User: Fold this.
Amino acid sequence: MMYDVMIIGGGPAGLTAGLYAARAGLKAVLLEQMFVGGQASTTDKLENYPGFPEGVGGPELMMQFEQQAVNMGLEIRYEPAESLELTGEIKRAKTMSGEIEAKTAILCMGAGRSLLGVPGEQELTGRGVSYCATCDGALHRGKRVAVVGGGDTAMEDVLYLARICEKVTLIHRRDQLRAVGRQADAVRNNEKVDILYNSRVEKIEKTESGVTLHLNEGRTLDVSAVFVAIGTKPESSLAFGQVEMNSAGFILAGEDTHTSVPGVFAAGDLRKKPLRQVVTAASDGAVAAYEAQNYLMEH
Assistant:
């Protein structure tokens, strides 16, 4: 079967692209590895998505994205793309069940959390080291935990954990937070939060009650778990060597979402852009579907 549009990734960008493509009458398929929603589905509460004055739960919002797209006719396959062929006239994705062909492709693989890169981190992932506070925070309810980072994601994690944990220690390598505004102020003023500035985690060791964080200057911190929130890295490996990227691996595509390959578009967090939020990912998805439609009409 030949599709008009093949969407790789089911976060806000991919689901919106699927919604717009299907609504335009295009035969569209979306490939997702595990569950739709991307990082948004692991966010406890979104306060800055328009239309929800009291905020909205990330998982709930993404479920609505999915249902709306499916209602419009989007086909969602829960099987990851193992490889992509993007440079030919026909775009192909290889999956465990076979090969999928389409006339256009929209890349929406998103971005994942960055690692600290210190001894003990990978060995203890899932055993005291986590990258998703809303996923694993409840496991440490009423206990002392730590968050590493200083940006918006770290602030979200700290505020969520402060609601359910006894104490939250925020570890930041600089002398001031990168995050600004309401959330940063809420973290500074929260009596359950301690902030360690000019601090770095250099090693993580397992203990009976959790983990010991070895910090610079010989300091240690014992916590039930540490949540790492130090940034993101693009999940663009499937497109390496096929579309133009920057040195960090973010795909170079303008506001029209066109990549360096005709008929291939990039939307959401894996695109080089100044702001990565649900609302900007959704915007990218809508534009990408519109541009894919124009491409099909012209070719």
User: Anything to note?
Assistant: The domain at 115-228 is CATH 3.50.50.60 (FAD/NAD(P)-binding domain). The first strand starts at residue 2 and ends at 8. The chain has a mean pLDDT of 94.
